[in-house]
Amino acid sequence: MNDEESGVRLNRLKQNEGPALRVLPSVVNDLLKEAEQIFKERGDFTDEILLALHSLFGKPFEKALELLESSCVVYVRCGQGRYVVQVTGSSGTPYTLFPHVNFCSCPAYRYQVISTQKFLTCKHILAARLAEIMQKGRDLSLSVEELTRILCAAVKFDSDGADHDPWSTHLV
Ligand SMILES: [Zn+2]
User: Fold this and answer.
1) Which residues form the SWIM-type domain (predicted)?
2) What percent of the chain stands above pLDDT 70?
3) Ligand 1 centroid vs 88 CA: distance in angstroms?
4) Better-predicted residue by pLDDT, 71 or 40
5) How far apart are CA 147 and CA 130, in angstroms?
6) Ligand 1 centre and the CA of 61: distance in Å?
7) How far is the CA of 166 from the centre of ligand 1 (A)?
8) What is the pLDDT of residues 51-74, one digit of tens each?
9) pLDDT tens-place string over residues 81-109
């Protein structure tokens, strides 16, 4: 696939963004796993995988890559194996995510993922997953009490009008 063909293909795919873009979760997971494998082998993404990720996730993928240019992803750890991910968006607001769960309390997730179903996920969730693949996250160790405070704040924020079961959709 040369660059011209990729560009033409990407434009066609971008025009198809919207409610028609419905894919099975397994396709999402397979593509992310493929991207992870490629990055592990080459230390970078190929053009093909970048285009494939963009065609699947759309604008949030572009924005996630922009977010990753700053150190926006922090793994908040507490003891062995327990952690949540905090992604600080362009507005400076940190969003707390559960590892590999496709749910975010940001407005874009609420409107573009849940309500209009324009996109599969938001830039914060993608940034978290990409940071894991690219090993761009920072670690922060907290006490149980501090982590509990973060989780309580996240749940309180999420309960503000969201009628979505965060455990029903997973992003590997
Ligand atoms: Zn979000």
Assistant:
1) 83-133
2) 79
3) 9
4) 40
5) 23
6) 12
7) 13
8) 999 999 999 999 999 999 988 999
9) 788 999 998 888 999 998 888 899 999 99
* Span from the CA of 37 to the centroid of ligand 1 (angstroms): 25
Q: How many angstroms separate the alpha carbon of residue 114 from the centre of ligand 1?
A: 11
User: Residue 35 and residue 50: Cα distance in Å, rounded?
Assistant: 8
The answer to whether residue 46 scores a pLDDT higher than 50 is yes
Centre of ligand 1 to C-alpha 1, Å, is: 33
Cβ pair 73, 128 in contact under 8 A: yes
Q: Is the pLDDT of residue 35 over 90?
A: yes
Rounded Cα distance between 64 and 67, Å, is 5
Domain positions in the chain: 3-158
Tell me phi and psi for residue 135, to 5 degrees: 55, 50
The whole-number pLDDT of residue 3 equals 61
Q: How far is the CA of 64 from the centre of ligand 1 (A)?
A: 10
Please name the residues in contact with 159: beta carbons below 8 A apart, sequence gap of 6 or more: none
The number of residues making up the chain comes to: 172
For residue 55, the CA-to-ligand 1 centroid distance in Å is 19
**Which of 20, 10, 23, 15 has its CA nearest to residue 55?**
10
pLDDT, tens digit, 9 for 90 and up, residues 124-141: 999 999 999 999 999 999
